[in-house]
DNA sequence: TTTATAATAATAGTAATACTATTATAAATA
DNA sequence: TATTTATAATAGTATTACTATTATTATAAA
C-alpha cells in the first residue's frame, strides 16, 4: 500500500496548482534540488527551466516569483512535519514523551520517503534549515501573513505549545518556547556544520547532541514552573 | 567629552575603508537608513547612490556588493554590542547579574547615540533583527567564515558562554545556550511584531516580557545543572 | 614650475535577472 | 467542422549587479 500524503496548500501561494500537472510536479522536484544545490540567492527560474527542459515563462505560469516558491516549499514542509508529528505521536499518551518525540523529529535529519511524493523531504529539510527563515524575514511578512502563508508554521507551533502546556500547565511561555525549539533545532544544526564555535557540538557534529541540548533546555524549564 | 567608538573592522570586508572618507561614512549612514526602509532584498547600490548623490560605481569602490555591506554592518553591530556589554557590566562582579544585564542589552531596543558615530544604532538594531541572519545563511558562509567575517559574532557568543560557565561551571551547553539567547532575543522580537501568535507577547508587545522569558529559560537551566 | 604619476571620480557600458506581452499550438467542446 | 479554451513557446523589456574606460584631481619628483 502506497501512502499518498496530499497536503492541501493555500491557493494564494501559486498561480496554478503545481500538483495538477507533470510540469508543476517537476517544478517542485527540481526546484528543491536546485535551491539545495545553489542556495536561494543564486537560484533563478531560468536555471530551473533549463534543468527541467521548459522555459522561464513556463514556470512563471505556476509561481509568481521565487519568493512565493520558497514560501510554498516552507509551508509544505511545516504541514508535512505536523502530519509526521501527529502520526508518530498518535499512540503516545504521556505528554512528556510526546514532546521528546517531537524534539527528535524536529532535530533529526529526515530520510527521504521516496514512496510518498515527488518532493525529496531530506533535501527540503536541509533547505528549511538554511533558507527557511528567509520565507518570513522580509518586508512583505505582514502581507504574506494576512494571506495565511505561514499558517502551517503557526499550526505546528501551536500543537507544540499545547503539549508544553499539558506537561506544565503553569509554564508561562508555551508559544515562545515552542518557537524557540523549532528555530533552535534548525539553527543549532546550521551552526554546528557552518559556524561550529557557536555551539558545543562543533567537534563531534552529532545531531543527538542537539537533541540532548534541547531536551535539557525544555525540560528543566518545565520542571521548575 | 565626546566618546568616539572606533571599531576596527576586518579589512577583507571592504575594498576601501568607509570610515576613511565622507563618501564612505555616507554609505554607512544612508545604507543603514535605506536597508531599514526598503528591506535588504529591495535595497540596491543604485538607490543608495541616488540617496547620497553619488554614482553606483562610487559605492562599488567601497564595497564589492551589497552582501559584503550587510556583513560589514552586522560585524560592526556585534562588535559595538560586545563593547557595550563589556563596558556596562564592567563593575558587576556577580556573574548572574552580569548575565541578566546582557540579556537586557540584547533584547532591549537600542536608543541611538547620536554623539558617537554616523551609524544610527537604533535602526541598525532593527536591521539586525530582520536581516541579520541573512549575513550567514548563505552558500558562502564557509568562505566568509574562513575570512573571519563572523568573528565579532563569535566573540560575543564566547563572552556570554564564559559568563554562563561562571554561573554554572557544570552546565554542559554554554555556547549553544549563548547563541540561543542571542538569536532568540531577536527572533522573539521579530515574531512579536510580525507573527505574534508564535510568541506569548503578541497582545502587549512589551520587550520586557521577552526579557522575562529569556531570563526564565536561562536561569532555570543553570539552576538545575 | 613643469611634468610625471598616482589616486579618485564620472561615464558609459554589459551580462544576467526578473519579469511580461504576444503569438502559436493543441485539446476540448459546440 | 468550427470555435472556444487551455496551454505552451517566442520574444521582448526594465532593472540589477556589476565592469571597463575615460576624465579629473591631487601629489610628488625633476
In a nutshell, what does this entry contain?
The structure is a homodimer of 225-residue chains. Chain A contains 10 helices and no strands.
Structural descriptors:
homodimer, 225 residues, mainly alpha, Tetracycline Repressor, domain 2, 61% helix, globular, DNA-binding
What does this structure look like?
The structure is a homodimer. By secondary structure, the first copy, chain A, is mainly α. Chain A has one domain (about 10-225): Orthogonal Bundle (Tetracycline Repressor, domain 2). Helix content of chain A is about 60%, strand content about 0%. The first copy, chain A, contains 10 helices and no strands. In chain A, helix 1 (about 20-40) crosses helix 2. The longest helix of chain A has 23 residues, at about 65-90. Chains A and B meet through helix 7, helix 8, helix 9 and helix 10 of A and helix 7, helix 8, helix 9 and helix 10 of B. The first copy, chain A, binds a DNA duplex (30 and 30 nucleotides) through helix 3.
Blueprint of the fold:
The structure is a homodimer of 225-residue chains.
Chain A: H1 22-38, H2 45-52, H3 56-60, H4 66-88, H5 95-107, H6 121-131, H7 141-146, H8 151-167, H9 174-194, H10 207-223
The first copy, chain A, binds a DNA duplex (30 and 30 nucleotides) through residues 21, 23, 44-46, 54-58, 60-61, 64-66.
**Helix-strand pattern of chain A:** HHHHHHHHHH
| Broad shape of chain A | globular
Count of runs of 4 or more consecutive helical residues of chain A: 10
Q: Write down the oligomeric state.
A: homodimer
Overall pLDDT confidence of chain A? 93
State the share of residues found in helices of chain A, binned by percent. 55-70%
Spans of chain A of 5+ residues with little confidence (pLDDT < 50)?
none
Give the number of domains of chain A.
1
- Give a quick account of the main beta sheet of chain A: strands, pairing sense, barrel closure: none
Amino acid at each position: 500500500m502506497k501512502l499518498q500524503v496530499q497536503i492541501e496548500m493555500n491557493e494564494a501561494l501559486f498561480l496554478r496548482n503545481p500538483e495538477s500537472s507533470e510540469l508543476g510536479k517537476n517544478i517542485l522536484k527540481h526546484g528543491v534540488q536546485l535551491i539545495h544545490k545553489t542556495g536561494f540567492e543564486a537560484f533563478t527560474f531560468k536555471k530551473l527551466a533549463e534543468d527541467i527542459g521548459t522555459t522561464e515563462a513556463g514556470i512563471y505560469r505556476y509561481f509568481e516569483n521565487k519568493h512565493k516558491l520558497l514560501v510554498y516549499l516552507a509551508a509544505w514542509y511545516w504541514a508535512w512535519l505536523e502530519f509526521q508529528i501527529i502520526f508518530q505521536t498518535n499512540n503516545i499518551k504521556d505528554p512528556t514523551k510526546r514532546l521528546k518525540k517531537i524534539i527528535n523529529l524536529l532535530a533529526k535529519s529526515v530520510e527521504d520517503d521516496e514512496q510518498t511524493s515527488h518532493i525529496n523531504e531530506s533535501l527540503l529539510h536541509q533547505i528549511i534549515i538554511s533558507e527557511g527563515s528567509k520565507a518570513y524575514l522580509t518586508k512583505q511578512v505582514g502581507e504574506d501573513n494576512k494571506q495565511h502563508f505561514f499558517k502551517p508554521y503557526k499550526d505546528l507551533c501551536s500543537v507544540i505549545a499545547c503539549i508544553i502546556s499539558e506537561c506544565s500547565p503553569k509554564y508561562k511561555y508555551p508559544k515562545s518556547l515552542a518557537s524557540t525549539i523549532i528555530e533552535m533545532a534548525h539553527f543549532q544544526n546550521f551552526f554546528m556544520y557552518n559556524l561550529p564555535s557557536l555551539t558545543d557540538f562543533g567537534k563531534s557534529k552529532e545531531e543527538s547532541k542537539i537533541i540532548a541540548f534541547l531536551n535539557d533546555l525544555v525540560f528543566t524549564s518545565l520542571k521548575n514552573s
